């Protein structure tokens, strides 16, 4: 599972308000990124020739950060996600390469320890046009200079970083903890749908006003609620 697909899937959740569908993954959590760890024992990053090298691991127990090394140019923006399907867990963080290293997170289950078990780290990069100018000059227009097994096509065109690895957190997976997490994720997603109906109707009202049409807020809200997938 690539981070590109994860990110698109997470973004698509917002569109599901207007179309019936079912998902057991809660809206992705966002986390603040602290500064990269000390670089005292870190080797100098290799010169970037277009072939992407990247490795990542967890750091920090049951509320870990994702740390990694790469030869991507300093300033490269990366999107890091940590997920576990069995817990309906997906969290994302944006980070920047500095001195050949990066750090994202820490990640938690809404402030609590992550459930034990296997997780997937996915790391990708946005389109070249969204990178700093110094990075764009190194990776080329639309990422045309990027190459190697850790790159892939973006769904919207161009070449981007596409890295994935499996990691373990804690001891043996706990089926009861996973079931409880899935149940909470479904309830949280259902509440998110309900809350989003206000935003949806506010947008519809704005369009109606511009077009000189009548707007029935109660009817809009009830229609939105009726389209929410059953738990």
UniProtKB/TrEMBL annotation:
It comes from the Bacteria. This is Lipoprotein. It comes from Agrilutibacter terrestris.
């Amino acid at each position: 599972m690539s981070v590109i697909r994860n990110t698109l899937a997470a973004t698509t959740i917002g569109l599901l308000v207007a179309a019936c569908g079912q998902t057991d993954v809660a809206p992705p959590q966002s986390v603040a990124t602290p500064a990269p760890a000390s670089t005292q024992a870190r080797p100098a990053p290799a010169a970037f020739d277009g072939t992407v090298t990247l490795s990542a691991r967890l750091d920090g127990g049951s509320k870990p950060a994702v740390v990694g090394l790469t030869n991507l140019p300093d300033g490269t923006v990366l999107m890091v996600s940590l997920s576990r399907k069995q817990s309906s867990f997906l969290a994302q963080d944006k980070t920047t390469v500095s001195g050949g290293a990066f750090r994202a997170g820490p990640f938690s289950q809404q402030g609590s320890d992550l459930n034990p078990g296997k997780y997937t780290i996915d790391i990708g990069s946005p389109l070249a046009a969204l990178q700093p100018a110094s990075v764009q000059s190194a990776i080329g227009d639309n990422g045309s200079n990027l190459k190697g097994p850790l790159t892939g096509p973006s769904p919207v065109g161009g070449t981007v970083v596409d890295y994935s690895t499996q990691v373990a957190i804690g001891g043996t997976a706990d089926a009861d903890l996973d079931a409880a997490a899935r149940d909470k994720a479904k309830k949280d997603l259902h509440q998110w749908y309900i809350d989003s109906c206000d935003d949806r109707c506010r947008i519809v009202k704005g369009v109606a006003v511009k077009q000189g049409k009548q707007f029935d807020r109660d009817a809009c809200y009830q229609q939105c609620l009726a389209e929410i997938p059953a738990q």
